[in-house]
UniProtKB/TrEMBL annotation:
Metal-binding found in the keyword field: yes
Classification lineage: Eukaryota, Sar, Stramenopiles, Ochrophyta, Pelagophyceae
Keywords associated with the record: Hydrolase, Metal-binding
Origin species: Aureoumbra lagunensis
Family: Belongs to the sulfatase family.
Protein name from the UniProt record: Sulfatase N-terminal domain-containing protein
Length: 192
C-alpha cells in the first residue's frame, strides 16, 4: 500500500490568545485543545494587516500586503504577481489533490478564489447568511441584518456555515484518504 500524506490547513478569524492551547484557561475550548495536541501550534503568529483578506492572501502567497497589493476584498494578488506560486498551488504541483473551502484567500468576489491555479477542483463557496437568517430573524432584533450578518437566530446547527464547511471537509478527508491531500478550510467564526 502506498504511503499517503494529508495536510489539513485551516484558518479561523479572530481567535484571541485566551484559548487554553495558547496562554491560559479563560475560554474552554476542548475541541481546539484536542486538535492542537496532535498538530502544530504557532504561538508567535501575527496578522499582516487588520483586515482578513489581505492577511489571508499574505499567508497563502508568502508575501506581505505591500507586495501583494491586496488591501481589501476586491484586490487580486495575481494582478501584480501572476507567476507567484500559492501554498495550495505548490502542493498541487507536487502531486497532491488540493481542495479549499470557505475563506481561504477570501473568496467573496472572484477571482480572489484563485481558481483553477491553486485548486484541483472547484467547490462552491457556501452561502453563509441568506439561507439561514432571512427566515429566522430574532424577535429581539426585528430588522433584517443579513447584509452584515451580525445578528441572527438559527433554526438548527446544521444550517450554520462553519458546520456545513466542517461536514464537507470530513467528507473530503474520507473521499480522498488514499491520495496525497492538501485541504485548506477557512472558517468564518468567530469574526469579531
Amino acid at each position: 500500500m502506498m504511503m499517503t500524506r494529508m495536510v489539513l490547513y485551516f484558518v479561523v478569524d479572530d481567535l484571541r490568545p485566551d484559548l487554553n492551547v495558547s496562554y491560559g484557561q479563560i475560554i474552554s475550548t476542548p475541541n481546539i485543545d484536542a486538535l492542537s495536541s496532535r498538530g502544530v501550534v504557532f504561538e508567535k503568529a501575527y496578522a499582516q494587516f487588520a483586515v482578513c483578506a489581505p492577511s489571508r492572501n499574505s499567508f497563502m502567497t508568502g508575501r506581505r500586503p505591500d507586495r501583494t497589493q491586496v488591501y481589501n476584498f476586491l484586490d487580486n494578488f495575481r494582478q501584480v504577481g501572476p507567476e507567484w506560486v500559492t501554498l495550495p498551488q505548490y502542493f498541487k504541483q507536487h502531486n497532491f489533490i488540493t481542495l479549499g473551502g470557505g475563506k481561504t484567500f477570501h473568496p467573496d468576489l472572484p477571482p480572489n478564489y484563485d481558481e483553477p491555479m491553486s485548486w484541483s477542483q472547484i467547490e462552491p463557496y457556501f452561502t453563509f447568511i441568506d439561507d439561514v437568517c432571512n427566515a429566522t430573524i430574532s424577535p429581539i432584533f426585528p430588522y433584517n441584518f443579513s447584509e452584515n450578518d451580525d445578528i441572527c437566530t438559527v433554526a438548527n446547527e446544521s444550517s450554520l456555515y462553519d458546520y456545513r464547511l466542517a461536514s464537507k471537509a470530513i467528507e473530503w478527508i474520507h473521499k480522498y484518504q488514499e491520495y496525497n491531500l492538501f485541504l485548506a478550510i477557512g472558517f468564518r467564526r468567530p469574526h469579531l
